[in-house]
Amino acid sequence: MNRIMAVVFLACGQIACGQRNDDQGQQQIAVMDTTKLTDKTVRSAIEAWQQGDSRLWLSYFTSNAKLLDDGKPRDFHKFSTEAIGHERFTSFDKVEDSGLSVYGKFHSDTWGNFKTYFKFHIDGAGKIYQLEIGQADY
Description:
Elements: H1 2-17, H2 40-51, H3 54-59, E1 61-69, E2 72-74, H4 76-83, E3 87-89, E4 94-96, E5 101-108, E6 112-122, E7 128-135
Parallel strand pairs: 1-7
Antiparallel strand pairs: 1-2, 3-5, 4-5, 5-6, 6-7
C-alpha cells in the first residue's frame, strides 16, 4: 500500500511540475502618467481608455460622435466597444493643439505595437464630437 501511494505521489508531482500558469502570456496594463495631457476632457477620456472602461470613455463623447481612422470614417461606437481593453497607449510622446492632439506609442492585441495619434474635437458644451486616430510618423 505504501509503495502504491509513493508512486501516485511521484506521478502527481511530475504532473504539477509540468503545469503552466495561464497569466504568463498576458501583459500587465501599467498605470500611465497622464500629467502631459493638458486638456481636462482629453485627459479624462484617455484615462478611461487606459483603464478599459468603455462606459466612462463614451460618457465624454456626444451621442453622434464621429470617428476618422487614417482619414476614413468608421463606426465610433463599434470601435470603442471592441478596442477598449485590448488597445492602449504605452507612452505619451507629444501633446499639441492646446492638449487636443496626443501622439504616442500604442499597443493593440490585434495589430501589435506602433506609433499613433488621437486628435480630439470638443464642442462648446465640453463633449467630444469627433475623434481622429491613425498611425503617426514622428
